[in-house]
Description:
- It is a single chain.
- By secondary structure, this protein is an alpha/beta fold.
- The chain has one domain: Nucleotidyltransferase, domain 5 (2-Layer Sandwich), CATH 3.30.420.
- The protein is built from 3 helices and 7 strands; from the N terminus they run ββββαβαββα.
- It has helices at 51-61, 75-83, 95-119, and strands spanning 3-8, 14-15, 24-30, 35-42, 67-70, 87-90, 93-94.
- A 5-stranded mixed beta sheet has the order 4-3-1-5-6. The protein has a two-stranded antiparallel ribbon with strand order 2-7.
- Strand 3 and strand 4 (35-42) form a beta hairpin.
Amino acid sequence: MAFLVAVASVDGRYINRHFATTDKFWIFRLMEDRFYLDDVRDVDRPAYANHKEMLLNLVEGIADCNMVLAQQIGPGAAVMLGYRGMEPYVAEGEIEEVLNRIAWLQKKRLYRAKRRTTQFSGLGQYW
């Protein structure tokens, strides 16, 4: 199962930008045991009437992603991302290291979900 992660970064190596002020998002495709750079999206910054409009534009630009990593994410942006089904995470450090941790957690989450389904599959006949 593919999982897209948008990372706010200057250089594609470190998570080092605030969500609202980043110039580009590095999009990584996370597979079960590996990840790779899928796309680099420049942020278009035309004149906006207000901050909310600017945040909506940012969220729409990465709407196909499942998760967002940034050095900082404001509460308004976090809510907008959540409404679109994206998981916002504040993180710092090397992108590779953070993505390896996320891949491990996703694998563990999928294993637990699969295990629960198998363990309780027979309960449906009694309910």
